[in-house]
Write a structure and sequence with these properties.
By secondary structure, the chain is an alpha/beta fold. The protein is 33% helix and 23% strand. The strands form three sheets. Strands 1, 2, 3, 4, 5, 15, 16, 17 and 18 form a nine-stranded mixed beta sheet that branches. A five-stranded parallel beta sheet has the order 9-10-11-12-13. Strand 11, helix 10 and strand 12 form a beta-alpha-beta unit. The chain is globular and about 70 Å long. The mean pLDDT is 96.
Length: 487
């Protein structure tokens, strides 16, 4: 007997342009049988999807859970937001230092605490990317892969001499990162992280395609200089000022450095995160041409696709790298439609309303905190704008399901096929809605997407065959499991 049959699903699959109406048979959390018709007598339970589009459960491969609120709280509320947006797998960035757990030390001690806090809190399945901050972390990469199933790592290229929210004072970054005296978070450190990742690939050849290094590409020195120029001139304000203070060529230069170091170290799996500008994308494409043996993957966020510097959200849309002007936004869409970009994420970082803006000077963009949530709008945002621009449903499924799942070692995620986890999101393509933060499960209390009309609404989310969200309500207790990779 099947546990569940979901009938009349218009199945959307990556790499398959045709959308067929199928019945989905589920057993033990997996897709067991997929056919044009399955007899209802074959299952203990039957549900009717009534012809809604069925996407594979989304893989949101870039989230920050526990950055501004404690992980034990953030994991609950923000994974609920993920479920309401059709996300069934959340991959979260985590590091030592200030924010997150506000602790430092070896990952051998730090990461088990992260997993203990996470256990039983997530309403969707979850994994973690880790950032080697201290020198000793480079030596732990092989252990993290083999013991904890962490196969993806991250470098924040600007942390060496630029703050999370703007310019920093001399010496403050060591305090911020909680690094030992004498250690530098710099290009040399990045090189040796790459060498450690490459060594881990050699030691684990069966995982060579799933071990990767991600980089936040911005150049601290350029940003420091331009921040001073923008502040001293005083002619720009808000998001335009912030974009000018972290100019696109800062991204491009950092991508050149990252690409050259990847070539030097033969670190062949490189993910270039949240590209926000034409200069950044063009730099990534040049690196692909210069070093064809490096497998560059290029990421874009739903925020950088839906927002521009003139959004009414103003300081609530502050993020790193910055929201750009409309010309850059349209270029990102062009590259996405041309399949030059590989996946779409949320870069979800819940920063509650009381902390986001400076209480005394709320209009000063440089005093606002960086980052905002948006995982709950990722599918609807992509569907709404992508459909207007001629993007196929299959391409959408590649961008938010298949591509990130394959890169990050989630072998049974990202498709609707026999043997895969029965992660499914039912979306009504004919229903539009206006984004209202008050209707979100997130604890953020606002959204930079407020008032935006989106076409295509998530109606139901299934996690491994169990309904976790339906018609605006998260259902049941937290059922998310830790995804020890390869999974």
């Amino acid at each position: 007997m099947l546990d569940l049959i979901i009938k009349n699903v218009k199945v959307v699959r990556p790499h398959k342009e045709e959308v067929e109406t199928m019945d989905l048979g589920i057993k033990n959390g997996k897709f067991e049988k997929i056919a044009s018709s399955i007899e209802t007598s074959e299952a203990r339970e039957v549900q009717d999807a009534k012809g809604l589009l069925g996407f594979p459960g989304l893989v949101d491969a870039h989230m920050h859970t526990g950055i501004y609120s404690h992980l034990s709280e953030d994991a609950i509320t923000e994974s609920k937001a993920a479920a309401m947006g059709g996300v069934t797998s959340s991959i979260n960035y985590m590091r030592t230092g200030q924010y997150y757990l506000n602790k430092t030390g070896k990952y051998a001690d730090f990461f088990p605490e992260v997993l203990e806090i996470s256990d039983g809190k997530f309403h969707v399945d979850y994994a973690y990317h880790l950032a080697p901050i201290r020198y000793e972390h480079r030596e732990e990469i092989e252990m993290l892969i083999e013991k904890f199933g962490v196969t993806s790592f991250k470098i924040f290229m600007f942390y060496g001499s630029h703050g999370l929210h703007g310019k920093s004072t001399k010496g403050s970054q060591n305090d911020f990162l909680m690094t030992p005296e004498g250690e530098q978070y710099d290009i040399a450190h990045f090189e040796f992280i790459m060498r450690s990742v490459q060594k881990a690939m050699q030691k684990n050849p069966e995982l060579k395609d799933e071990i990767s290094l991600s980089l936040h590409c911005e150049t601290a020195e350029i940003m420091r200089a331009y921040t001073e120029i923008v502040e001293n001139e005083g002619t720009l304000t808000g998001l335009r000022a912030y974009s000018a203070s972290r100019p696109p060529h800062s991204e491009g230069l950092a991508i050149f450095i990252a690409g050259y170091l990847a070539n030097e170290t033969n670190c062949v799996n490189i993910n270039l995160l949240h590209l926000s500008s034409k200069k950044a994308v063009d730099a990534a494409l040049l690196m692909e041409q210069a070093f064809p043996h490096i497998n560059f993957k290029k990421e874009v966020t739903i925020g950088h696709l839906l927002l521009d510097v003139d959004t009414p959200a103003a300081g609530h849309a502050k993020v790193n790298p910055p929201i750009r002007d409309r010309e850059n936004v349209e270029y990102l869409w062009k590259m996405l439609l041309d399949k030059k970009l590989d996946w779409v994420v949320s870069d979800h970082a819940c920063c509650s309303a009381e902390f986001k803006l400076d209480n005394k000077n709320p209009d000063n963009i440089f005093l606002a905190k960086s980052g905002f949530g948006g995982t709950e709008y990722m599918l609807s945002g992509l569907f709404s704008e992508g459909s207007k621009r001629g993007m196929s449903y299959s391409h959408m499924a590649e961008l938010v399901c298949w591509n990130p799942a394959k890169r990050y070692g989630l072998r049974s995620k990202g498709d609707i096929a026999v043997g895969y986890d029965a992660d499914l999101v039912l979306l009504d393509p004919g229903e539009s809605f206006v984004v209202r933060a008050a209707e979100s499960e997130s604890a953020q209390g606002y959204t930079p997407f407020e008032g935006m009309k989106l076409n295509g609404k998530v109606k139901t989310t299934f996690l491994r065959g169990e309904k976790v969200f339906e018609n605006g309500t998260v259902i049941g207790n937290a059922k998310g499991q830790y995804l020890k990779r390869p999974y």
